[in-house]
């Protein structure tokens, strides 16, 4: 996305400037701007405030451009996640962290179940990755990716108002709650941060005794970045 700032002060009525900013450049946007400029330049002593149709035209164009620049929630389903060693995600409530652990028979109830929300991207993408938000079922906790000491890390954040997550502007810090889910096989996926590209949710080898689920860059040694995402409904 680009910032387009157009100012035609020499062609507009005295004291009037046109400025468009923070909207993706599209053919419709350019066409709309040309139409507005033609109408403004064609009328001597034109009063913008008294042309209701033009005001509506500008407002509708602004709203449409704004909606295209947002990730829009599409649906939600319940799922659970296991890594390549069949370790499950478990919530450590004391440290408010997700840990990857091997669960035996009677302890399977510790496995975290997620509410996975899918999104429509604001602009077409060449990849088939789908933006998703990951919330822990039965809570207001959501996975997010933020920097800690300059390094992207995985966190659990409480979201009191979940309406905030229904539409996320692509330039807002709420993008930290989004991850690109790229399917690499049947129920096998990677989860890449939408805020920090090329950083993936990952788990460590069982032998490393590092339980915390965290972020890593692709191809980081001794880290798993592919997961089985099992849908439950």
Question: Largest beta sheet, briefly?
Answer: 6 strands, antiparallel, barrel
The rounded distance between the terminal residues' Cα atoms is: 36 Å
Number of helices: 2
Q: Tell me roughly what share of residues is in helical segments.
A: 10-25%
N to C succession of SSEs: HHEEEEEEEEEEEEEE
Strand content: 35-45%
What class would the helix/strand composition place it in?
mainly beta
Total DSSP E strands: 14
Q: Give Rg in angstroms.
A: 23 Å
Q: What coarse outline follows from CA principal-axis ratios?
A: globular
Main location: cytoplasm
Protein name: Interleukin-1
GO biological process, one term: positive regulation of cell division
Keywords: Cytokine, Cytoplasm, Inflammatory response, Lysosome, Mitogen, Pyrogen, Secreted
Write the layout of secondary structure elements.
Blueprint: H1 27-42, H2 52-68, E1 70-82, E2 88-92, E3 97-101, E4 114-120, E5 130-136, E6 141-148, E7 151-158, E8 167-169, E9 178-185, E10 188-193, E11 199-204, E12 214-217, E13 223-224, E14 227-231
Antiparallel strand pairs: 1-4, 1-8, 1-14, 2-3, 4-5, 5-9, 6-7, 9-10, 10-14, 11-12, 11-13
Overall description:
The chain has two helices and 14 strands. The chain has 233 residues and is mainly beta. The strands form four sheets. It has a six-stranded antiparallel β-barrel. A three-stranded antiparallel beta sheet has the order 12-11-13, with no helix packed on it. Strand 2 and strand 3 (97-101) form a beta hairpin.
């Amino acid at each position: 996305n680009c910032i387009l700032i157009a100012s035609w002060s020499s062609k507009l009525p005295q004291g009037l400037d046109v400025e468009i900013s923070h909207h993706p450049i599209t053919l419709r946007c350019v066409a709309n701007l040309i139409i507005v400029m033609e109408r403004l330049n064609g009328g001597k002593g034109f009063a913008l405030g008294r042309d209701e149709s033009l005001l509506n035209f500008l407002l509708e164009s602004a709203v449409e451009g704004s909606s295209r620049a947002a990730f829009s929630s599409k649906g939600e389903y319940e799922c659970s996640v296991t890594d390549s060693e069949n370790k499950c995600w478990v919530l450590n409530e004391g440290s408010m962290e997700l840990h990857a652990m091997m669960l035996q028979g009677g302890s399977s109830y510790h496995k975290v179940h997620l509410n996975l929300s899918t999104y429509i991207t604001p602009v077409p993408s060449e990849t088939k990755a789908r933006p998703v938000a990951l919330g822990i079922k039965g809570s207001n906790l959501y996975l997010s990716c933020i920097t800690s000491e300059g390094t992207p890390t995985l966190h659990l954040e409480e979201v009191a108002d979940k309406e905030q997550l229904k539409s996320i502007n692509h330039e807002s810090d709420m993008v930290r709650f989004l991850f690109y889910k790229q399917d690499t096989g049947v129920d096998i996926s990677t989860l890449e941060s939408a805020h920090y590209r090329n950083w993936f949710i990952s788990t460590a080898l069982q032998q490393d005794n590092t339980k915390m689920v965290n972020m890593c860059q692709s191809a980081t040694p001794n880290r798993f970045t592919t997961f089985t995402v099992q849908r439950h409904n």
